[in-house]
TrEMBL record:
The organism of origin for this protein: Solanum tuberosum
GO biological process assignments: fatty acid biosynthetic process; fatty acid metabolic process
Sequence intervals crossing the membrane: none
Cofactor(s), names only, from the UniProt record: Fe cation; Fe(2+)
Protein name, UniProt field: Acyl-[acyl-carrier-protein] desaturase
Pfam families: FA_desaturase_2
Positions annotated to bind Fe cation 1: 134, 172, 175, 258
Annotated GO MF terms: metal ion binding; stearoyl-[ACP] desaturase activity
Residues holding Fe cation 2: 172, 225, 258, 261
Gene Ontology CC terms: chloroplast
Family designation: Belongs to the fatty acid desaturase type 2 family.
InterPro entries for the chain: Fatty_acid_desaturase-2 (IPR005067), Ferritin-like_SF (IPR009078), RNR-like (IPR012348)
């Protein structure tokens, strides 16, 4: 009989928000916000301080052999989903190209700045938030390289798990580069504050409770990639409405990358459910109990410790990422992974299955309650270049 991994009891995701510790933001003037923010479920709720007790290496050592045995499967089923560099898009394809000469370059920059005038300040707040999330990639690769059994031991390991992680990092790296350059050329934001915020964010790291455990890590990555795809896709929709088709194309292209990455991590979890269903079911429930926390939850700008709450409130109000999206993602994975139909689970894993499959109605109920909470306007006046702000 296969040994199972024991996790703690499973609770409904809390909608009570805790203030994050100083870690990364984007402000110049201090803003105020009612403490009665719109309630964005788990994915948009800040974590507790990194100084809390952190569980490490929760995967039993005997599980290492499972990930070793899956290496041929990764080579055959995951690595082909990498895109060859020569077939990948690059940021310069979406940006004014200085190689065309100064006059053409300046004309394209002027056209870009004209297009963005139709986009609201709140849109740019969320664009900065998405850019910071993408640009904190050094932290994310570092986290993946802590996972037992799949880490890159040398920095250039031939292990297929490590090859995928490096390829994923290289593909993701373009997202932040492209969004940051577009923001810079737009003239709409104070890039000094944005750059300081990014430095705070990478320095703070993330505290998403993965315990160096690849079971937890791949569940988180599946959920997070789908959430990011949704966010960028909604940004594309709003960019079209605001009159910037190029920015819509940028956000849509990034969303397509995230969708492909989601497919990889979803496929990995499917395989883990096949070879080790009890431990994988426990991992899914464990992450739902902890709540899938956005990787930029420790964002700080040097002044405002509640900046993540402000981003979350605007994301909810603009429909970019909301409690409804969280519920839909949860429902999607229950269906995709066929969790309700899993058979042969024993003990705590069986109870974990009941918990996860029964969660969506309760999450929907919390979503309905969230809509009744009043949200005041949040002004991120410190982020903007007032000479061109709409």
């Amino acid at each position: 009989m296969m040994q199972t991994t024991s996790f703690s009891q499973f609770n409904i995701p809390s909608i009570v928000r805790e203030s994050p510790p100083p870690a990364t933001t984007i402000h110049r003037r201090k803003t105020t916000l009612s403490r009665r923010l719109s309630l964005v479920l788990a994915v948009a709720s800040p974590a507790t301080s990194p100084s809390r007790h952190q569980v490490t290496h929760s995967m039993p050592p005997e599980k290492l052999e499972i990930f070793k045995s899956l290496e041929p499967w990764v080579s055959e089923n995951v690595l082909p989903l990498r895109k060859p560099v020569e077939k990948c898009w690059q940021p310069i394809e979406f940006l004014p190209d200085p190689s065309q000469g100064p006059e053409q370059f300046e004309e394209e920059v002027r056209a870009l700045r004209q297009r963005v005038l139709g986009l609201s300040d709140e849109y740019f707040v969320m664009l900065v938030g998405n850019m910071l999330t993408e640009d904190a990639l050094p932290t994310y690769q570092t986290v993946i390289n802590t996972w037992d059994g799949v880490r890159d031991e040398t920095g250039s390991s031939p292990c297929p798990w490590a090859i995928w992680t490096r390829a994923w990092t290289a593909e993701e790296n373009r997202h932040g580069d492209l969004l940051r350059t577009y923001l810079y050329l737009s003239g709409r934001v104070d890039m000094l504050m944005v750059e300081k915020t990014l430095q705070y964010l990478i320095g703070a790291g993330i505290d998403i409770g993965l315990e160096n455990n690849p079971y937890l890590g791949y569940v988180y990555a599946s959920f997070q990639e789908r959430a990011t795809c949704s966010s960028h896709g909604n940004m594309a929709r709003l960019a079209i409405k605001g009159g910037d088709p190029m920015l819509a194309r940028i956000c849509g292209t990034i969303a397509a990358d995230e969708k492909r990455h989601e497919h990889v991590y979803t496929r990995i979890v499917e395989k883990l459910l096949e070879v080790d269903p009890n431990a994988t079911m426990l991992a899914i429930a464990h992450m739902m109990k902890k709540k899938i926390i956005m990787p930029m939850h420790l964002i700080y700008d040097g002044q405002d410790p509640n900046i993540f709450e402000h981003f979350s409130a605007i994301g909810e109000r603009q429909g970019i990422y909301t409690s409804r999206h969280y519920a839909e993602i949860l429902e999607f994975f229950i269906t995709r992974w066929k969790l309700e139909k899993l058979e042969g689970l024993i003990g705590e894993a069986r109870r974990a299955q009941d918990y996860v499959c029964g969660l969506p109605p309760r999450v929907r109920k919390l979503e309905s309650r969230a809509k009744k909470i009043e949200t005041r306007q949040v002004k991120f006046s410190w982020i903007f270049n007032k000479q061109v702000s709409a």
